[in-house]
Every structure is written in C-alpha cells, then in structure tokens.
C-alpha cells in the first residue's frame, strides 16, 4: 500500500499565502497577531505555525501587510490599491483590467476573487511585483456590481434550489430559497436577481424575477444573451413615463429660434427595415454654382436633458443593440422611432452640419447649429443604388451629384492612408415563426458609401471645430473617437498569415502599413482568399475606443474625429451635441473630468453590444444548420487554436469547429510559431485560409456551437 505523498513546503507556503491574504482582506480594519491568525485558519502543528509566521513576514515585505506593533499585523491600506474591471476566465481565475491602460493586467487567483463577479469594478491590492513573474493581486472590495441579474437553468431539490448561469464566466451558482422560486420549476430557464451575498457564504442568495419556461425558444435565448452581457432589455417605469410625455408636435417658439430648412430638398437613405432615422441629407444649388449640403441629425439633446431618467438610462445602456431578430434601443421607441426619428413628410428638430462645397468636394465654408427640417422622401439603400446605377426617379440628379462628391471624398481619404475595408455582414431572412430560412451576405455598395462619406465629413468637422476652439492649456472637455496605430506583433502575425497565399507586405514604415494593406486587398479582391485576408487584416488592427485625449483615428486617417451623427443609438453622440451647443451659445461647459468615466463606460458597453450581437448571430447560425446534421460542405479554415480549427462553410457562411483530436490521418498538434496545426508523422499542415471539406455531426443551439468532422 503506497503512502500518500505530502505536499512540498513550497506548495504549503503558497497555499498559506492565499489563505492569509483572504483573512486580512475579509477583516481590512483588524489587527491580528501570529497566534490569532493561526487560530483563524486552524493551524496547530509547530512546523506549520512557523511557516505561517514566515508567510506573514513575506507579506509585510511585499507591502500587502504592515506591522501594527506588539507583534500585530494588519492590511496595508496606504499602498498598492488599484481599481479596474475584473474579467473572469472559465477556470475561475481572473484578470483586473486597470484604469491605467499602460499597466499590465493583474492576475487574480481563484482564492482571491473574494465575491467579485465578471465585469465588476473592483479594488485590488498587489501581492507581488517581481521582475520575473506576472503581476498578481487580491480583490479587496467590490466597488460596483456590473450586474445583479442572470439567466440560467434552475436545479432544485426538496429544500432549496440553485441557478446555474448560462454564462460560465459568472464564476458562481446562485442559491435560491424555496420561497424565492416564484413558480419556477426544476429545469426551467429563469431570470434571477442577486439579493445579498453574506461574507460567510460561498454563493450569493437570489430570487426568481421571471420564469422563462423550458429551455429553448428564440425569445428565451435572446434574453439570456442580453442579460449575460449586462444589457437591460426593458425600460424602467420612470423612463417610459417620461418618454410618453414627449409629443410629436413642434413648439412654435422653439421653431423660431432655429434655422429653417423645411423648404430645401431633404431625404434619408437607410436600410429597408429601419425605423430610427437619425440622419438626413439636404441639397441646394447656390447662385455661385456651389452646392449647400446639409447633414441633419436628429436633435435628441432637445428632448433628453442631463440627469433626467431618460438620460441616466441612456448612459447606462450607452448604445442600441442590434440582434438578429430585434433591436434593444438606447432610448424608448416614443423617441427613437417617433419623436426624434427623421421620418418622411414630418417637420423635425435637428442639429446640423452644413457645408458649402463644389463638385470636386472642396469645402468653402461650414456652419453648425440647431435647425428644423422636413424630409421629402425616404430612400432605402437599394432604391438609392438603382439611381446611382442609372435608374431615374425622385431626386435622381441630387443623388448622382452627391455620389460623385462622396467618391472624391473617399478617394482623398484613401490617398491619405485610410483603410479600404469593404464590410461583409452575415444576415438572416426569418420566416413567420422567426426561424432563419436563408443566409444573406450584406456588402457595402455605392449608396452605403455615399451616406458614410457625408457622415464622416460631419463627424470630422465637428471634432476639428471643437478642438480648434479650445484655448491654449484649456481644452474643451470632449469625446473623441480614437483608433490607435497597429500593434507590430499583430501586423507581423498578419504578414506571416498572408505568406501562405504567396503575399507579403512592407511593415517597416508604420505610416504606410494601411496603404500596403489596401494595395494587397485591391490585388486579391476577385480571388477566393479575399474575404479571409480582409477579416485577418481587421483583426490585426487596434480596436477603436472613446477617449477625452485625442490620438487621432488611424483607420480613417483623420487627425481628429468624433461621433456626432447617431444620437438616437449612441450616447457619445448625445454628449457631443451638448458640448457643441454649449460652445455655439453660452460657452459654459458642464462636462469636466466626468467625461473620462463616460468614455470608459460607453467603450465597455460598446464591446458588450458587439459580443451580444456576435452571440446572436452564432445562435441563428446553429438554428439554420440544426436540420443539416450529416450533410457535407466545402469550407475555409477561419481560425486555429490549441484545441482545434474553425471552419467557415462556403455555402452558408456558418462557422463550426473541428476538434484537433478528431482530425484523421495523423496525431495533430498546434504549432504556435508557425500558427498552424501539424501532423506528427506525415507533417501535413492546416492553417487559416486552407480549403477543406467537412460534415456537420453535432449542433447545440444552447451552447451556440457547430461541431464538424473532416471528410
């Protein structure tokens, strides 16, 4: 009979380190002696007591603890406190993303999570900061819960129940007393709210807010996606009440204060299913031969005042969320689809950027201000595109001239180094029951680019105007849309990837990277690998964020840029409208340091919206192929990982995964340096862009996964 091996002294010390940290973070204002610590953690053996003393002294040396005199120790609250957002991994550990973006993320061991949940704003104390080890810390306090409501599955017995959250990164199950089930049964999906979390409890306590019935169903799954991202899908009563008080009529006194564009040709160009029209374009030929182009934006700031319930809720949401089968608006529909929406044949308040320009795109003057407009016609992108391609109809001359100017503006941007990205979006056509019956790839055409160029023009000029008005040493507090230069490591990886197709670009001059990528994309536009190369080019770029410190927008090649044109669906634009109006009138700017927090909030919520939209697409992809199990498809390898490779099927653009252990013909492994999957014996390689043939063998709508096997 073999003896059980004792843990090493090093492992014991490491374990004691975590236990003692938890003791002091749970009692932040208490001084404890060595004897008291041993008693609290039930250490009696002499050798272990000696080791405990050694750990206490180490924690003093690392500044986690401080000596309180007379052999006592206490938490060192004077140093090493940092704040940030915690992101949990599926294994229970976490990383705190600090407010100071220049500092590396701080690793949090599962034992030091201390009741923090994924996305919470936390206070963290450093444990070590050694040269050869990653930064590690311990959660001292949860400053703000990111969310308290979760969707999951009820698991119950005779005495109590638990909610098992759909999102495995939540980090804990939620305890539900029987009297708090509110009709929910074992196996039901439910929306649960955390009510308390006692210090002594491993799991938080909660109650069922809404039973969603048995697992499955589009509505249940969409609610689950939203809640697990911390996105509200219903409005509070106070917000709805305020929104319902907003009428459709315009106050004549307010109309008299504004520049009147109602007699000038004005129209909107939007998607077929759009309801929230937040931008319109007006066109007027001037006597000198130039053109007056007005970019008119829904004047949300007139209806949503700072500090009101609608404003507080709009900041909380930060943006509208566009799932496959529904929109979760930032503002109630009374505003987003009715009062603010620039609907045809209705007088509307707007905030406008008006340009006098010639047909070569040269701007001769610009004006910003509050206006009243009347949209003469609502175009869909398809209708505008038909006119651009030669059809005749309403305002065809205006659209043709605007398209000509837009093409010049776009060419100038690209010549300045802007990225030439042709967007491709996977969309679904849904039947009457909400089931996807067709996959559609939406690509940008000239009509989309026409609208895009004039919106970019307005955004850029508003940013330039505000920036130029700031006095030396006293800049106007403002929200910029920033896009940093590419990370050299990511662009090097992109270069490695395209070498597989026989291409290579010069990365030496960072100012020419975008131009070199544009040339590559132009060269391969008609080739099969174009889509995957463009996708990888986008992934190699930095993510755009909101910030009060302007660093420019690399992807657009603009030195100064903001978001002004979509206040119905973005809070950033609403703030920009307020700042611009303040500068145009009383110049008394209400925003100050608080804008930094607003930028962090809206940037974070934008990422959550993107994740929700991505997961929604994955869910509908699984719905689309759930009845195609056993069918064979041609596909393209779209991603490589240690556990397998992702394949995008060519016919339906749905993505699934082939586990590395299931690739036939050899024993395959992931090669990090070459970024490929390689066989041990025959050295066969699979990498991004490879053409393969796969069979669908399992689909899970709940997990949003499509499992594939090689044919």
Task: Write structural notes for this entry.
The chain has 711 residues and is of the alpha+beta class. It folds into 6 domains: 9-75, Arc Repressor Mutant, subunit A, CATH 1.10.10; 81-144, Nucleic acid-binding proteins (OB fold (Dihydrolipoamide Acetyltransferase, E2P), Beta Barrel), CATH 2.40.50.140; 149-215, Beta Barrel (OB fold (Dihydrolipoamide Acetyltransferase, E2P)), CATH 2.40.50; 239-484 and 546-612, no CATH class; 488-541, no CATH class; 626-710, Nucleic acid-binding proteins (OB fold (Dihydrolipoamide Acetyltransferase, E2P), Beta Barrel), CATH 2.40.50. The chain is 30% helix and 28% strand. The strands form 9 sheets. Strands 14-21-20-17-16-15-22 form a 7-stranded mixed sheet. Strand 16 (279-285) and strand 17 (291-298) form a beta hairpin. Helix 1 (9-26) packs across helix 3 (46-61) and helix 13 (488-498) runs antiparallel to helix 15. The mean pLDDT is 89.
């Amino acid at each position: 009979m073999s003896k059980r091996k004792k843990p090493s002294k090093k492992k014991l010390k490491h374990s004691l380190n975590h236990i003692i940290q938890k003791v002091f973070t749970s009692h932040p204002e208490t001084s404890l002696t060595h004897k008291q610590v041993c008693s609290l953690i039930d250490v009696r053996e002499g050798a272990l007591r000696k080791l405990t003393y050694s750990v206490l002294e180490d924690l003093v040396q690392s500044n986690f603890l401080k000596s309180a005199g007379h052999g006592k120790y206490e938490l060192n609250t004077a140093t090493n406190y940092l704040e940030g957002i915690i992101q949990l991994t599926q294994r229970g550990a976490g990383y705190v993303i600090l407010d100071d973006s220049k500092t590396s993320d701080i690793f949090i061991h599962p034992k030091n999570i201390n009741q923090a949940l994924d996305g919470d704003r936390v206070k963290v104390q450093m444990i070590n900061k050694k040269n050869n080890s990653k930064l590690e810390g311990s959660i001292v306090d949860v400053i703000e819960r990111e969310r308290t409501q979760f969707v999951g599955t009820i698991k119950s017995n005779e005495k109590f129940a638990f909610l098992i959250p759909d999102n495995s990164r939540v980090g804990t199950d939620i305890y539900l007393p029987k009297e708090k089930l509110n009709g929910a049964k074992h196996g039901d999906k439910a929306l649960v709210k955390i009510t308390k979390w006692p210090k002594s409890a491993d799991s938080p306590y909660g109650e069922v807010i809404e039973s969603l019935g048995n697992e499955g169903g589009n509505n249940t799954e969409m609610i689950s996606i939203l809640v697990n991202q911390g996105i509200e899908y219903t409005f509070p009563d106070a917000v709805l009440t305020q929104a319902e008080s907003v009428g459709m009529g315009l106050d004549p006194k307010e109309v008299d204060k504004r520049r009147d564009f109602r007699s000038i040709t004005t129209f909107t160009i939007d998607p077929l299913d759009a309801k929230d029209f937040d931008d319109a374009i007006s066109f007027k030929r001037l006597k000198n031969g130039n053109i007056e182009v007005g970019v008119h934006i829904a004047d949300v700031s007139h209806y949503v005042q700072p500090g009101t319930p609608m404003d507080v809720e709009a900041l909380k949401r930060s943006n509208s969320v566009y799932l496959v089968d529904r929109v979760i608006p930032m503002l109630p529909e009374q505003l987003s689809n009715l009062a603010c929406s620039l609907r045809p044949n209705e007088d509307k308040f707007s905030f406008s950027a008006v340009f006098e320009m010639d047909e070569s795109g040269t701007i001769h003057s610009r004006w910003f201000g509050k206006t009243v407009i009347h949209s003469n016609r609502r175009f869909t992108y398809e209708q505008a595109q038909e006119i651009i391609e030669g059809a005749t109809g309403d305002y065809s001359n205006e659209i043709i001239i605007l398209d000509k100017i837009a093409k010049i503006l776009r060419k100038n941007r690209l010549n300045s180094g802007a990225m030439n990205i042709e967007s491709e979006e996977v969309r679904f056509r849904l039947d009457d029951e909400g089931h996807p019956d067709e996959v559609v790839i939406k690509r940008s055409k000239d009509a989309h680019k026409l609208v895009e160029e004039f919106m970019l023009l307005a955004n850029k000029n508003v940013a330039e105007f505000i920036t130029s008005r700031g006095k030396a040493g006293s800049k106007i507090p403002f929200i910029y849309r920033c896009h940093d230069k590419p990370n050299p490591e990511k662009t090097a990886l992109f270069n490695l990837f395209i070498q597989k197709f026989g291409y290579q670009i010069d990365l030496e001059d960072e100012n020419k990277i975008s131009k070199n990528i544009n040339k590559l994309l132009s060269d391969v536009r008609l080739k099969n690998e174009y889509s995957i190369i463009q996708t990888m080019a986008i992934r190699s770029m930095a993510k755009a964020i909101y910030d009060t410190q302007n660093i420019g927008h690399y992807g657009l090649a603009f030195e100064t840029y903001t978001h002004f044109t979509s206040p119905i669906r973005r809070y950033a634009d609403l703030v920009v409208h307020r700042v611009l109006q303040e500068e145009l009138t009383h110049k008394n700017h209400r925003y100050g340091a608080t804008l930094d927090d607003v930028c962090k909030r809206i940037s974070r919520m934008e990422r959550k919206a993107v994740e929700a939209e991505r997961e929604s697409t994955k869910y509908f992809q699984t719905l689309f192929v759930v009845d195609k199990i056993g069918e064979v498809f041609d596909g393209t390898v779209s991603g490589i990982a240690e556990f397998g490779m992702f394949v995008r099927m060519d016919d339906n653009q749905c993505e699934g995964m082939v586990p590395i252990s299931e690739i036939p013909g050899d024993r395959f492994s992931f090669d990090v340096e070459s970024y490929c999957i390689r066989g041990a014996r025959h050295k066969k390689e699979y990498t991004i862009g490879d053409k393969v043939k796969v069979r669908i063998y399992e689909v899970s709508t709940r997990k949003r996964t499509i499992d594939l096997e090689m044919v």
